[in-house]
Fold this sequence. Notes:
The protein is of the alpha+beta class.
Amino acid sequence: MSASAAAPLSAGLALLNGFQRGFPLVPRPFEEVGRRCGLEEAAVLEAVREHASRGTISRVGVVFAPGAVGASTLAAMALPSAQLVSVARLVSAQPEVNHNYEREHRYNLWFVVTAAAAGAVDAALERIARASGHAVLSLPLLEEYHIDLGFDLADGGAPRAARRVPARGPLGERERRLLAALEPGLALVPRPYAALGRQAGLAESEVIATLEEWLARGVARRVGVVLHHRRLGYTANAMAVWDVPDAQVARLGARLAQRPEVTLCYRRARALPAWPYNLFCMIHGRERAAVQTQLARLAREEGLERCAHDVLFSRRCFKQRGARYAGETPDG
């Protein structure tokens, strides 16, 4: 994603682009955003609401570090083309599934399952396999190198935030209540933290202090605008995977994570013999040829050309939303 390939940003989207992280933790955050940008609070709220209604932003909210408040896995299924849509609909209906995509591969349906505990993730996978009649491949995260998906729409590459290993340990009841209230995102009102507090039974100051603590502990990766990248023109999105010797994967993953074109990078468990790959990265782009060129250059410069690999471009998005850790009823 080069600067020359990026489309010009509207004034409203340019405003939101700058607050993908570092969203103000003050009683009137939209007023503070406006103060920094020379706008009135009402104008900022209008811009956010407009993009939310158009689906170009998913929410303004919290992105949690992987494994910090629950359990998750990336899963895949190899489906006959005639059954893909019906099984995708079944998968998307599960409350534990937050992302669900078709990709160009024999394993053509890929989805993320997230829940409060590992047992609930396993139960969801078993439920999907039983209801669909197809096996599910589970590829749990072993090590993250860059997981954020906050990237600069103006030039296609955001500065890498320092990665903090999250403090582990169960959340308290107060934190769990706040987590449940946060899952849909902040209310687009002048005092969203006060609105959260009313839902969670907390004072506005307690909400802000808890969010600050989560960021400091590494439990929360960022607070800010979460984009729907496909609706912003990023439709040439490739998941590249390599079979890297275990002794080398951490070094190579750390190098890939520093490249501006890489939006996600992590190590996952192999699932032999079906899936030999352990190093994953994503490149989100507007044009397929440009992404292919970037991947070829990346493999050449990082010494990955000798490793067995595959590239899976996304075809369709069946579901994309924030993870749900607190539980809910299935989607309709």
